[in-house]
Design a protein that fits this description.
The chain is α/β, with parallel strands linked by helices. It has a single domain (about 25-109), classed as Immunoglobulin-like, CATH 2.60.40. It has helices spanning about 1-15, 20-25, and strands at about 25-35, 35-40, 40-45, 50-55, 65, 80-85, 90-95, 105-109. The protein is globular and about 30 Å long. It starts with a helix and ends with a strand. The structure holds copper (II) ion.
């Protein structure tokens, strides 16, 4: 009886907290400042949540260079964040759509 209860509770938690479950694999961050993504190349394990935060005083975006784009942020104002969970191994290039010379790479392996 108690086994059934706890199993049901666990299922409920997983349904309510999928983000937390994915985040268990880890979180890594990329800082945007002075028209630069830092680090320019970030290596993470599959399942990692990557969070970009704009510390610049002008808007920037984070757009995958894949066709079609694998991810695309809106314009991020100062201190705005954007996040993507990278489930699959691979090399994910991205850039800022407002300043195309701003480029970065997420290596998932
Ligand atoms: Cu930009």
């Amino acid at each position: 009886m108690s086994g059934l209860l706890s199993r049901r509770r666990a299922a409920l938690l997983l349904a309510v907290l999928p983000a937390v479950r994915a985040g268990a694999a880890g979180v890594a961050s990329v800082t945007i400042d002075n028209f630069t993504f830092t680090p320019a190349v970030l290596t993470v394990a599959p399942g990692t949540r990557v969070v970009w935060i704009n510390r610049d005083d002008i808007p920037h975006t984070v757009v995958s260079d894949a066709r079609p784009p694998a991810f695309r942020s809106h314009a991020l104002d100062t201190d705005d964040t954007f996040e993507v969970v990278f489930d699959r191994p691979g090399r994910w290039g991205y850039f800022c759509a407002l300043h195309a010379h701003m480029q970065g790479t997420i290596l998932v392996r």
